Amino acid sequence: MSAALLNLDHRAILRLKGPDARSFLQGLVTNDVMPVTAGRAVYAAMLTPQGKYMYDMIIMADGDDLLLDIEAERKTDLMRRLMMYKLRADVTITDETDLGVWVSLEQPSANGVSVPDPRDAMLGWRLVTAEKPDAPALERDTYEQARLRLGVPDGSRDMEIEKYFWLETAAERLNGVSFTKGCYVGQELTARMKHRTNLKKMLRPVRVEGGAPEEGAVIETAEGKAAGTVRTSNGEFALVYFRLEHEAATLTCDGKPVILL
Questions:
Q1: Domain holding 17: CATH number?
Q2: Domain check: are 38 and 130 in the same one?
Q3: Three-class SS state of 226
Q4: 78 and 183 inside one domain
Q5: Number of folded domains in the chain?
Q6: Lower CB count within 10 Å: N or C terminus of the chain?
Q7: Kind and range of the H or E element at 86?
């Protein structure tokens, strides 16, 4: 039986084509794009000079081209920023409106570009294709709860633009940063945070007994101190922007017990 698939209609694809495609992107994003090959993707982000999140992406290979799996709502802004950096680089950036992004918790058999999710292998596979796959439907709630349980953010739904430092998003655990690749925008501060600073906040997955609350709900300690804020949630699971000083505390949200995962 074919693997069940879910269309992520809030995602879009940009194509980078040309002899300078890799070197162009290499100088802009947090991860090393050189290992990207057929069947192997890379998770990366573009940051502010201060090391804060602007855009994240999953980078795949389609022949000699690179495909960027990105947020659809922010596609125009990202294209504008990429064009600003393009200068004389021999690279063409196109909006692949005919391509859709699909996900499966198992390896799909459909035609297209398919890769294991580079952030966490337990989150299954990504498929980019122009066709609607002939496969059973994966329930959105099933996928969302798997994503939240694993602590994988979904773009600006979970990461506040120009507010969260990249390492606060669990980017290192999710294979979203290289500390050996060389320079990119925001690299200096990101490296300094890795080697010289203890992070005070982090996106953390939680389970809320009785059902997770909506975005913006506050996680509290037994003493009533604010320990974190819910970003996205589904079922009993949520991603929380969490103050790490409260890791050992007894936590609740709207009176419900909260367990850090």
A1: 3.30.70.1400
A2: yes
A3: strand
A4: no
A5: 2
A6: N
A7: helix 75-86
Q: Count of CB atoms within 10 A of residue 182's CB?
A: 9
DSSP state of 40: B
Verdict on whether the full-model pTM lies above 0.90: yes
Please name the helix (run of DSSP H) or strand (run of DSSP E) that holds residue 143, with its range, or none.
helix 140-149
Q: Which amino acid makes up residue 225?
A: K
* Domain, as residue range, for 190: 155-260
Neighbouring C-beta atoms of residue 175, cutoff 10 Å: 17
Residue 110 CB: number of other CB atoms within 10 A?
17
Q: What is the pLDDT along the chain (261 residues), one digit of tens a residue?
A: 689 999 999 999 999 999 999 999 999 999 999 999 999 999 999 999 999 999 999 999 999 999 999 999 999 999 999 999 998 999 999 999 999 999 999 999 889 999 999 999 999 999 999 999 999 999 999 999 999 999 999 999 999 999 999 999 999 999 999 999 989 999 999 999 988 778 999 999 999 999 988 899 999 999 999 999 999 999 999 999 999 999 999 999 999 999 999
Looking at the structure, do residues 40 and 90 belong to the same domain, yes or no?
Answer: yes
Instruction: Give CA–CA dist 28/33, Å, rounded.
Output: 10
Do residues 165 and 138 both lie within one domain? no
Pairwise CA distance, residues 185 & 195, whole Å: 18
Same domain? For 21 and 94 the reply is yes
